[in-house]
């Protein structure tokens, strides 16, 4: 196969007789391409067959494939014999995944580069030109197809027999609804069942006030939270410390004396007098923006920051949002200490917990 | 009776004949083998997406063998000592088992995640290529629409996928998703409780996300990708303008053998790179995050990169709450705008863009030749504006990390994002527009006056001028005019073959001098019959 460059063949060319024994295989290929409106205008081997350069290229490609074999074998050996079970500390198992990735990666890259080099460097370069044939169908063809479709409509004769159309529609509409019904009906769930969107785990059970407990379920005494400190507390009920009560986590904050004074005044302004107990205040931990736990409490400025979207709440001003996308203050939990000296919730939250929604009153 | 001798050499031909007898495959097969593809590096971007999708399917099927999509509470008792004895969901426990107790499971998990990131990234880059070169114009609007949908479906695939392990990070993501759904006016709470099966988090979501992630969404992706590829095949690929290339032909290589071989090799490269990343670069180490608990979160909780722009828009949104004082009062929370309305607008604009542009330019012709971005300044500038918009939002999605690492006030970062979102995109539009005009002008200067040679000549009167090499023989008036035809104008002398090519060979020079590099977009420069003296472009003014 030698370098082959030619001009576009003239139109109306006689097809070659492919059974002609004098034709080379390439000429037959070229004839096939022509029948598909493809003209191979340039075809050029990159190497003289058997030349030193070609042999060098062949060796390079072979090297890639051998590298693949080696890496793949290494992968198998590592996969089978390398200690892979997790051990605490800096054991060899920490290298298991990186080694697997490394050997697998090298193996695949080896095949990839091998094949690519083969294709790009050894195979002849070519330029072929193919006609697009993306002209739209002739007006005549379009008309025929259009008429065929209209003919089908005519044959059905819906226009002549309107009853059919109406009854079909009347029949199909309910069927469509039947298809949708199980999906909608099965999935739909009333968000206001048991008033769940407006209550939390702190709702008194049978008139008994719910205790505030820590993550390990122990009730909390005022002495458990130091001045300026804070603690995440949960309702002391069954599954209170679990995702089943995802709306209940609450931040119990022990404010400093002057901050507590400020806070009490702010409470009084909005009719929340008595929500605090001593210098302790409890706010919902569920951000009113998107529901993340607003948990980064900055003691010095009394700001609570939600790490998801950086809403900031001013704790001593009724947890009013002062920066970021949140538009509603964190609800405050009215608390007191029961006769045994543990924190309890006086009542459930008096405002809705968590992200805002349409019908929140 | 004489037994016929079995002729091994004739078997392939006979089989082929037998097949053609039954399926009449010879002609269509030849057409397929001969199909011509134009070649350019930028046409490979979409293939990266396709190949990473294949890797996603392969690794994903492996993962399903071990993952248990249930929110049942179990106590972890696997190999990872720090979490032993911790109550967690079965989904999280099985994800830990996949990482620690399934041999090679972690590398598969990480490859799956990296492939997903690469899938989305290559979709975006491919989309930019198609946009800036005008490849979406008639007749390819349908494929543009499908491609845009692929981004959003891929977005869903990614989100459902990384929600599955039920670790602290993904649970927080789901919590935010529930907050977003809640914000939809009128139906928000119903939608949320229907999807989560009650109040967040419920006990069913992981199973639902799982079936969406492994069946519904991949099914949709496969369908969309098939149509996308089918249309590329049917409508034939666009090509850059160049010698011999017209709107009616395709200039390139036949699919077999060279083009297909290169594709196969490229697939292996993509696969190999994903394997390297999956092994060497840790991603989503769920064991550090712990199980999802509604009260835990940490700073620097970022979603995967393709979700970050929505996170950013959420952070920038001012706290504008709309209250509707009817009855008990109704609310449209601020989170509704950046997370529901904004993506809605973005989907709309991206789907409609080809039609809007055609309408604006009253251009309803077939276009099979690509445009250089500089030749369509308005579109290029609009694209730059969109990219700037996306970048500002994405950076804002990480503004807490940036604030922390660079010791910037967090609030200042938010304000910078808010102001930046309004100022940077128009600025990008203006700059891109001017750059396009400048590049256009320079192209025409070179066509009119020639290539700068870097040779400074001193004229008899003492002036210094730079010698220019004209690209064409000078006409009578001394100006050789070449028309701009939409492809690359050579601007360096070595593009004209004036300099010898670099010596090839890694350790030793390869003796045979290589051809001067000619990229597909370049017109071949033919030597003129008689060499003229290099003249100065300046002297012709």
UniProtKB/TrEMBL annotation, chain A:
<keyword id="KW-0560">Oxidoreductase</keyword>
<keyword id="KW-0813">Transport</keyword>
<protein>
    <recommendedName>
        <fullName>Cytochrome bc1 complex Rieske iron-sulfur subunit</fullName>
    </recommendedName>
</protein>
<keyword id="KW-0249">Electron transport</keyword>
<dbReference type="InterPro" id="IPR014349">
    <property type="entry name" value="Rieske_Fe-S_prot"/>
</dbReference>
<keyword id="KW-0001">2Fe-2S</keyword>
<comment type="function">
    <text>Iron-sulfur subunit of the cytochrome bc1 complex, an essential component of the respiratory electron transport chain required for ATP synthesis. The bc1 complex catalyzes the oxidation of menaquinol and the reduction of cytochrome c in the respiratory chain. The bc1 complex operates through a Q-cycle mechanism that couples electron transfer to generation of the proton gradient that drives ATP synthesis.</text>
</comment>
<keyword id="KW-0408">Iron</keyword>
<dbReference type="GO" id="GO:0046872">
    <property type="term" value="F:metal ion binding"/>
</dbReference>
<dbReference type="InterPro" id="IPR045603">
    <property type="entry name" value="QcrA_N"/>
</dbReference>
<keyword id="KW-0812">Transmembrane</keyword>
<dbReference type="InterPro" id="IPR017941">
    <property type="entry name" value="Rieske_2Fe-2S"/>
</dbReference>
<dbReference type="GO" id="GO:0051537">
    <property type="term" value="F:2 iron, 2 sulfur cluster binding"/>
</dbReference>
<keyword id="KW-1003">Cell membrane</keyword>
<feature type="domain" description="Rieske">
    <location>
        <begin position="278"/>
        <end position="344"/>
    </location>
</feature>
<dbReference type="GO" id="GO:0004497">
    <property type="term" value="F:monooxygenase activity"/>
</dbReference>
<keyword id="KW-0479">Metal-binding</keyword>
<dbReference type="Pfam" id="PF19297">
    <property type="entry name" value="QcrA_N"/>
</dbReference>
<dbReference type="GO" id="GO:0005886">
    <property type="term" value="C:plasma membrane"/>
</dbReference>
<dbReference type="GO" id="GO:0016705">
    <property type="term" value="F:oxidoreductase activity, acting on paired donors, with incorporation or reduction of molecular oxygen"/>
</dbReference>
<feature type="transmembrane region" description="Helical">
    <location>
        <begin position="163"/>
        <end position="188"/>
    </location>
</feature>
<keyword id="KW-0679">Respiratory chain</keyword>
TrEMBL record, chain B:
<dbReference type="Pfam" id="PF13631">
    <property type="entry name" value="Cytochrom_B_N_2"/>
</dbReference>
<keyword id="KW-0812">Transmembrane</keyword>
<feature type="transmembrane region" description="Helical">
    <location>
        <begin position="415"/>
        <end position="433"/>
    </location>
</feature>
<keyword id="KW-0679">Respiratory chain</keyword>
<protein>
    <recommendedName>
        <fullName>Cytochrome bc1 complex cytochrome b subunit</fullName>
        <ecNumber>7.1.1.8</ecNumber>
    </recommendedName>
</protein>
<feature type="transmembrane region" description="Helical">
    <location>
        <begin position="376"/>
        <end position="395"/>
    </location>
</feature>
<dbReference type="InterPro" id="IPR005797">
    <property type="entry name" value="Cyt_b/b6_N"/>
</dbReference>
<dbReference type="GO" id="GO:0008121">
    <property type="term" value="F:quinol-cytochrome-c reductase activity"/>
</dbReference>
<keyword id="KW-0472">Membrane</keyword>
<keyword id="KW-0408">Iron</keyword>
<dbReference type="GO" id="GO:0022904">
    <property type="term" value="P:respiratory electron transport chain"/>
</dbReference>
<dbReference type="GO" id="GO:0046872">
    <property type="term" value="F:metal ion binding"/>
</dbReference>
<keyword id="KW-1003">Cell membrane</keyword>
<feature type="transmembrane region" description="Helical">
    <location>
        <begin position="264"/>
        <end position="283"/>
    </location>
</feature>
<feature type="transmembrane region" description="Helical">
    <location>
        <begin position="210"/>
        <end position="233"/>
    </location>
</feature>
<keyword id="KW-0813">Transport</keyword>
<keyword id="KW-0479">Metal-binding</keyword>
<dbReference type="GO" id="GO:0016491">
    <property type="term" value="F:oxidoreductase activity"/>
</dbReference>
<feature type="transmembrane region" description="Helical">
    <location>
        <begin position="113"/>
        <end position="132"/>
    </location>
</feature>
<feature type="compositionally biased region" description="Basic and acidic residues">
    <location>
        <begin position="525"/>
        <end position="541"/>
    </location>
</feature>
<feature type="transmembrane region" description="Helical">
    <location>
        <begin position="41"/>
        <end position="67"/>
    </location>
</feature>
<dbReference type="GO" id="GO:0005886">
    <property type="term" value="C:plasma membrane"/>
</dbReference>
């Amino acid at each position: 196969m030698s370098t082959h460059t030619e001009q576009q063949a003239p139109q109306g060319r006689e097809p070659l007789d492919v059974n002609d024994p004098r034709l080379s295989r390439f000429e037959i290929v070229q004839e096939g391409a022509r029948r598909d409106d493809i003209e191979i205008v340039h075809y050029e081997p990159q190497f003289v067959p058997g030349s030193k350069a070609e042999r060098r290229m062949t060796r390079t490609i072979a090297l890639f494939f051998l590298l693949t074999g080696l890496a793949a074998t290494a992968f198998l050996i590592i996969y089978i014999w390398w200690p892979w079970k997790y051990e605490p500390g800096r054991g060899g198992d920490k290298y298991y995944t990186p080694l697997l990735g490394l050997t697998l990666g090298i193996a695949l890259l080896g095949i990839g580069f091998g094949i690519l080099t083969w294709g790009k460097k050894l195979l002849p370069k070519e330029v072929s030109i193919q006609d697009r044939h993306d002209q739209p169908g002739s007006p005549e063809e379009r008309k025929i197809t259009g008429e065929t479709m209209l003919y089908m409509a005519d044959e059905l004769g819906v226009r002549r027999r309107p009853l059919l159309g109406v009854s079909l529609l009347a029949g199909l509409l309910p069927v469509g609804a039947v298809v949708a019904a199980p999906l909608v009906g099965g999935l739909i769930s009333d968000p206001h069942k048991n008033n769940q969107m407006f209550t939390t785990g702190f709702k008194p059970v049978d008139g008994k006030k719910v205790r505030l407990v820590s993550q390990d379920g122990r009730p909390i005494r005022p002495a458990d939270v130091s001045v300026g400190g804070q603690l995440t507390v949960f309702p002391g009920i069954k599954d209170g410390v679990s995702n089943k009560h995802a709306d209940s986590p609450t931040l119990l904050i022990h404010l400093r004396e002057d901050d507590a004074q400020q806070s009490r005044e702010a409470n009084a302004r909005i009719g929340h007098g008595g929500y605090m107990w001593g210098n302790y205040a409890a706010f919902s931990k569920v951000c009113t923006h998107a529901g993340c736990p607003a948990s980064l409490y900055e003691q010095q400025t009394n700001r609570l920051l939600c790490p998801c979207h950086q809403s900031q709440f001013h704790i001593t001003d009724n947890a009013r949002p002062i920066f970021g996308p949140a538009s509603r203050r964190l609800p405050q939990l009215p608390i007191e200490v029961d006769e045994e000296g543990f924190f309890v919730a006086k009542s459930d939250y008096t405002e809705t917990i968590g992200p805002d929604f349409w019908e929140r009153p | 009776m004489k037994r016929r001798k079995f002729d091994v050499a004739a078997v392939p031909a006979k089989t082929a004949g037998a097949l053609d007898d039954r399926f009449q495959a010879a002609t269509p097969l030849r057409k397929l083998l001969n199909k011509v593809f134009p070649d350019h590096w930028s046409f490979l971007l979409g293939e990266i997406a396709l190949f990473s999708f294949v890797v996603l399917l392969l690794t994903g099927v492996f993962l399903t063998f071990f993952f248990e999509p249930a929110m049942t509470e179990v106590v972890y008792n696997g190999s990872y000592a720090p979490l032993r004895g911790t109550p967690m969901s079965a989904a999280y426990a099985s994800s830990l088992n996949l990482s620690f107790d399934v041999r090679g499971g972690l590398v598969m998990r990480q490859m799956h995640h990296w492939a997903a990131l690469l899938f989305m990234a290559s979709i975006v880059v491919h989309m930019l290529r198609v946009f800036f070169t005008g490849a979406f114009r008639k007749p390819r609007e349908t494929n543009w629409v499908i491609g845009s949908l692929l981004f959003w479906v891929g977005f869903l695939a990614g989100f459902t996928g990384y929600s599955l392990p039920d670790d602290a990070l993904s649970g927080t993501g789901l919590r935010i998703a529930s907050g977003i759904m809640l914000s939809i006016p009128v139906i928000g709470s119903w939608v949320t409780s229907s999807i989560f099966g009650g109040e967040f988090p419920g006990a069913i979501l992981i199973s639902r996300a799982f079936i969406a992630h492994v069946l519904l969404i991949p099914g949709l992706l496969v369908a969309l990708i098939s149509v996308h590829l089918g249309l590329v095949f049917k409508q034939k690929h666009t090509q850059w303008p160049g010698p011999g290339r017209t709107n009616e032909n395709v200039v390139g290589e036949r699919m077999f053998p060279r083009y297909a071989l290169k594709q196969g090799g490229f697939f292996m490269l993509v696969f190999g790179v994903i394997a390297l990343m999956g092994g060497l670069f840790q991603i989503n180490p769920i064991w550090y995050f712990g199980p999802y608990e509604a009260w835990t979160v940490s700073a620097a909780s970022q979603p995967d990169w393709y979700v970050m722009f929505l996170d950013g828009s959420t952070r920038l949104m001012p706290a504008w709450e709309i209250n509707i004082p009817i009855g008990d009062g109704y609310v449209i929370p601020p989170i509704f705008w950046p997370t529901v309305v904004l993506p809605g607008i973005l989907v709309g604009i991206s789907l409609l863009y080809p039609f809007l542009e055609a309408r604006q330019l009253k251009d309803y012709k077939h276009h099979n030749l690509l445009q250089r971005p500089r030749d369509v300044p308005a579109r290029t500038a609009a694209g730059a504006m969109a990219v700037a918009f996306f970048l500002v939002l994405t950076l804002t999605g990480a503004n807490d990390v940036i604030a922390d690492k660079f010791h910037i006030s967090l609030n200042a970062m938010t304000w910078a994002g808010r102001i930046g979102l309004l100022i940077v995109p128009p600025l990008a539009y203006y700059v891109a527009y001017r750059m396009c005009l400048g590049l256009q002008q320079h192209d025409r200067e070179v066509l009119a006056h020639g290539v700068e040679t870097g040779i400074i000549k001193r004229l008899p009167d003492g002036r210094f001028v730079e010698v220019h090499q004209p690209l064409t023989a000078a006409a009578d008036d001394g100006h050789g005019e070449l028309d701009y035809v939409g492809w690359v104008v050579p601007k360096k002398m070595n593009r004209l073959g004036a300099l010898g090519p670099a010596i090839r060979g890694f350790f030793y020079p390869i003796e045979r001098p290589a051809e001067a590099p000619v990229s597909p977009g370049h017109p071949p420069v033919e030597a003129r019959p008689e060499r003229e003296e290099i003249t100065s472009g300046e002297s012709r003014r």
